[in-house]
UniProtKB/TrEMBL annotation:
Annotated organism of origin: Sphingobium fuliginis (strain ATCC 27551)
PROSITE patterns in the record: HTH_CROC1
Domain annotation HTH cro/C1-type: ranges: 26-64
Gene3D superfamilies associated with the record: lambda repressor-like DNA-binding domains (1.10.260.40)
Name of one Pfam family that matches: HTH_3
Protein name according to UniProt: HTH cro/C1-type domain-containing protein
SUPFAM superfamilies to which the protein is assigned, alphabetical: lambda repressor-like DNA-binding domains (SSF47413)
Residues making up the signal peptide according to the UniProt record: none
Length: 116
């Protein structure tokens, strides 16, 4: 699976935005223009904003989080990205990684039930 550093999120935003203004792109993404501008300039967004931006970009958030789609996703890879933010303690990074992986497992289970 391809993985990208979280810093590439800003590059992808700038590419999708093209010549359009930040306000127009932000409205389309469902976030504020200030938030989209901050993320485009390298700041790491909160989880809700991250999800909206990934949806707008049409990219799987897993490519930034290092989450594998195998039976046993790699928690370690997700933790590494959260540890880059100096305000996160190792315990917080670990907890966030576990939360994301639990949400992913719940989503996969729900999709499997819907397909039955």
């Amino acid at each position: 699976m391809e993985t990208l550093p979280i810093q590439d999120l800003g590059r992808l935003i700038a590419k999708k935005r093209g010549n359009r203004g930040i306000r127009s792109a932000a409205a389309e993404a469902g976030v504020s223009s200030a938030t989209l501008s901050r993320v485009e300039n390298g700041n790491v967004p909160d989880l809700a904003t991250f999800a909206k931006i990934c949806r707008w970009l049409g990219v799987d958030p897993a490519i930034f989080l290092g989450i594998e789609t195998s039976e046993e996703p790699s928690k370690k890879a997700a933790v590494v990205h959260f540890r880059k933010k100096k305000t996160f303690s190792p315990e917080t990074a670990e907890s966030l990684a576990e939360l994301i992986l639990a949400a992913q497992r719940a989503k996969e289970a729900r999709l499997a039930l819907q397909q039955q």
